[in-house]
Amino acid sequence: MRPNLPFNALRAFESSARHLSFTRAATELNVTQAAVSQQVRMLEERLGATLFKRLPRGLAITDEGLALRPVLTDAFDRIEAVLRQFEGGHFHEVLTVGAVGTFAVGWLMPRLKSFHETHPFVELRIMTNNNLVDLAAEGLDFAIRFGDGTWPGSRAVRLFDAPLCALCAPDIADRLRTPLDLAGEKLLRSYRTDDWTLWFKAAGIAPRPVRGPVFDSSRLMVEAAMQGAGIALAPASMFERDLTAGRLVRPFDIEVQAGSYWLISQKGKTATPAMRAFNQWIVKEAGGREAS
């Protein structure tokens, strides 16, 4: 390993390689063109290799230079990214959270102001998904999923139950008197195939074939219901604003427990300060508890 390679020389080479010009590199680095040229020459001498061919109208990078440039560019980009996290005299830690869209819009977004006020140095990044998520592959610190909390390789913290109930537009609700009236209506479906079967059982009526449209997001399904496309089966707690505003109606009190919302993370992953802060905050907001 070559010791003590000068940082300024490496920076001068990387900038010159991007611009193929000592002059433009000098402008970027706020030094003279002669200083850049001298730094690059020094680096070439230390490495014992020619990094550029000096041409009358600029530079041509050599094979040796082509091998070195991407490594330096990546290193300088990573250094810059970390240094940006110290803006304002504080370290800003990035936290990436994946969440099902229904939860993100219906529960998390209205509460984000509270998190930012109490944790101003955590840069939160929210990614939405349809409940299918790979924490490691997608670079997520946490994911919020709906289900029973048993996902292989994951540590799960239950946030709260989210029972499903029938939801529809007001004009459809006006013609519903009993659950038997659903026989003449279009029933919207999610990726969970047994939701309506469970609801019919809770209502005390025989299951009927369900052939309505299928949605991979409860948020989209309920949006379709609000526009009169049919009746959705979804957690009422995620649509409180629409229910309060009268855009959505719950025609029956019947509900069925099909799962809960969980905060999940990779088993064995060391929690960062930002992860611990978010975990404590969201569990407190939700009144959840760790899974056994």
Automatic annotation (TrEMBL):
UniProt domain HTH lysR-type: residue ranges: 5-62
Source taxon at top rank: Bacteria
Keywords: Activator, DNA-binding, Transcription, Transcription regulation
Signal peptide positions (record): none
One Pfam assignment: HTH_1
Single annotated GO MF: DNA-binding transcription factor activity
GO terms under biological process: DNA-templated transcription
InterPro entries: LysR-type_TF_proteobact-type, LysR_HTH_N, LysR_subst-bd, WH-like_DNA-bd_sf, WH_DNA-bd_sf
PANTHER family in the record: HTH-TYPE TRANSCRIPTIONAL ACTIVATOR AMPR, HTH-TYPE TRANSCRIPTIONAL REGULATOR
UniProt record similarity statement: Belongs to the LysR transcriptional regulatory family.
Entry protein name: LysR family transcriptional regulator, regulator of gene expression of beta-lactamase
Source organism of this protein record: Paraburkholderia lycopersici
